[in-house]
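Cross-posting from the modeling subforum.

Setting up a comparison between two proteins and wanted a second pair of eyes on the formatting. Protein 1 (sequence, then structure tokens):
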Amino acid sequence: MKIQLLGAEDIPAFSKHLHQCLLENTDPALSVYAPFLKEEVRSVEVIEKKCRESWNRPLHEKGWERVWAMMDQGQMLGHVDLNSGRMTTELHRTYLGMAILNPNRGKGIGRKLLNHAVEWAKAQPSLAWLDLYVFQHNHAAIHLYREAGFQEVFRRDDAYRMRGEKIADLAMTLRLRS
């Protein structure tokens, strides 16, 4: 297994991977970790378009994104992404997203991807904060983020309603530098 920064040539495979991750989230047998209903899951083509627009943008422009995948024999097992906010005034912050395909969870892949993304972000002089959102019931992810130094900033109760449940969302942050 190895972590790989994804480039333009990886967009089709990544788009299928992300689409699969989002569809897994709609499986009633699995835990919910993203706020999308099945009919709201973006198509592979929409994901590809977004990647083509954001992956090559420099960090000083809003709308940039970088994605790393854990690869094993040409297969994407999971990924972590860092992206800018929507406003130029928040380019000192980056947002983290991560998804590990269900069969690959609990094997340390998330920890390796998270550590890689944190180290990359720390090496970028323009970035001062790393932010993320996680559902309050996702105890494994919250534990992982806390171990990496993330602090809970606030909890938004009843943020989402899915599968008959009220889901609270936690905002967490990691200071990279002053």
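Protein 2 (same layout):
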Amino acid sequence: MDKRLLPVLATALVLTSCSLFGSGEETSMENGDKNAAPVEELNGGMNMEEGSTKEDAKPAYPIVLRGDVGSSHIAIAGKKGSVVLNQGKFNTFDFQVFLNPEKPDAFEVTQMGVGVLVSSLVTDNAGLTDNLLSANFLDPVSYPMATFVSTNIENTEGSRYHVTGEATVHGVTNEVSFDATITRESLEANLLLNIGDFGLSGMNDYDADVPMQISVKFQ
């Protein structure tokens, strides 16, 4: 992807996420925010030949696939060695996958954008949640959002993709790569984020590498 487009995509993602998260209300751990406004489907300005119908001209896939927060999750775990000590997830996020608009009838993933409301984090330990969301750690007042914007997506085989992009957490941006399975219906991915790479420290009871599981069902 042309790196000149990254600021445009990042700005669009942040503006969209701000509109979603404007209320500032957290959802429960069991229920996501189902009130997010849908992204408009871009059907293009194609000239239909005589005798064709709208159904004939309609792309097989929408140009933008957007995650359904109510049936999706972005989960994390705190571990020490091979032992998982705690688990949690973000209840409010915007997850978008962009398809090639020049090939509307082909499923060709070209970009990905994610915006996460940091204050929506909930874990299985209330004290841990408070510590993570304090000014001494994630500090959601100063850094309300974590974002990811892809810089390259490679289709390795079938529905398997290798995704590389820029993740911003706690005001620090680093390159992150992970493998994902992407279909018209869903996206599944697992990755490790090292909190030290984002200027975070002080959680000595846990490893710096934080496992993250992403499971997204598209609208």
